[in-house]
């Protein structure tokens, strides 16, 4: 359970994120409703807050097989059930949202949550929001560039005059409400492109990297590039924060974690690959390779997870770690058990080791 009031956490921040996927259970074939999935996400955030985790993120999709499209609404509901945990999007598809509306929504969330709102902005793995909101996928990158530029200006100024290509100009416009924090923390979600790392460094915003498989060391050049560009642009090194995100599952032993997680993880990727028009499933042999000690997939005992986080910390010196532990139709009971293990057995040791 959470430590006494007034506690402080040293070391890296540790938390969770969810995309709210609605997958059929691989054992029963049943699919829970969006209503139940949303209620379970709120309950997971409440458990994470009570257990003393630092951050909870909610993703954005505009599909019937995901429960969350209105991320600020979800986070506002979570804010009313929690007291301490930071609340972030994970990620906001910035190319297809009006930056002014986005700022107003998250500034309001910041006021509702007593200063706990953050944004991870990305371009999104799916493109259904482009036709849905009247945007052209050919403008994929240009929209993101313009919108993040505008958002950062909104974050700095109560009044703004601005002109761009994709939305109407602003003339001495009042931007309200203002958040409780001096500025909303904003991170750019990065999948692996040097261009994204360069942009995050140049803008001086945080960089959240999704590392889902393989050797995490391949992402070190990306982190080095981000910090190099950021400092050369004039940003203070301490302000250039790196977050690592990835899939995870924790159980009492590593073998138990692998045995329990494999059906759900294979189910998840089969499902996602079908959404993308791709075939193929994950064999047990492939899964065993994916969960090896030197890989980025956070599946194992608390000790195994600790070792993986600390190995990545040696590589990146990052400030935040977030795990997605509720994918592929995993029953909520297992999610709750994972939250407890992450908070009570993994987080204290990782915080201690990374605060040295």
UniProtKB/TrEMBL annotation:
It holds the Pfam family Bac_luciferase. Transmembrane segments: none annotated. InterPro entries: Bact_Lucif_Oxidored, Luciferase-like_dom, Luciferase-like_sf. Keywords: Monooxygenase, Oxidoreductase. Residues 14-315 form the Luciferase-like domain. This is LLM class flavin-dependent oxidoreductase.
């Amino acid at each position: 359970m959470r430590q006494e009031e007034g506690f402080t956490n040293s070391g890296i921040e540790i938390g969770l994120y969810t995309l709210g996927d609605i997958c059929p259970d691989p054992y029963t074939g049943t699919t829970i409703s969006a209503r139940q999935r949303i209620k379970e996400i709120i309950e997971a955030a409440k458990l994470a807050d009570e257990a003393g985790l630092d951050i909870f993120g909610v993703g954005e999709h505009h599909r019937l097989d995901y429960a969350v499209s209105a991320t600020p609404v979800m986070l506002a509901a979570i804010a009313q059930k929690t007291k301490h945990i930071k609340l972030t999007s994970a990620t906001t598809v910035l190319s297809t949202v009006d930056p002014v509306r986005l700022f107003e929504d998250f500034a309001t969330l910041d006021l509702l949550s007593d200063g706990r709102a953050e944004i991870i902005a990305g371009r999104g793995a799916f493109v259904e929001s482009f036709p849905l909101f009247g945007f052209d996928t050919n403008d994929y990158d240009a929209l993101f560039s313009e919108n993040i530029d505008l958002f950062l200006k909104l974050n700095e100024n109560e009044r703004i005059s601005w002109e761009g290509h994709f939305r109407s100009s602003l003339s001495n416009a009042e931007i309200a409400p203002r958040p409780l924090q001096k500025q909303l923390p904003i991170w750019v979600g990065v999948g692996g492109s040097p261009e994204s790392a360069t942009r995050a460094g140049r803008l001086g915003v945080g960089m959240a990297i999704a590392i889902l498989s393989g050797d995490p060391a391949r992402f070190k050049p990306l982190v080095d590039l981000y910090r190099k560009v950021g400092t050369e642009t004039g940003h203070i090194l301490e302000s250039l924060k790196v977050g690592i995100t990835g899939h995870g599952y924790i159980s009492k032993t590593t073998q138990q974690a692998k045995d329990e997680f494999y059906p759900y993880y294979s189910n998840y990727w089969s499902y996602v690959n079908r959404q993308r028009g791709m075939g193929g499933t994950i064999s047990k042999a492939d899964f065993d390779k994916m969960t090896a000690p030197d890989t980025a997939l956070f599946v194992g005992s608390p000790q195994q997870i600790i070792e993986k986080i600390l190995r990545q910390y040696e590589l990146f010196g990052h400030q935040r770690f977030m795990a997605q532990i509720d994918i592929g139709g995993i029953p909520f009971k297992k999610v709750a058990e994972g939250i407890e293990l992450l908070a009570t057995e993994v987080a204290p040791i990782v915080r201690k080791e990374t605060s040295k």
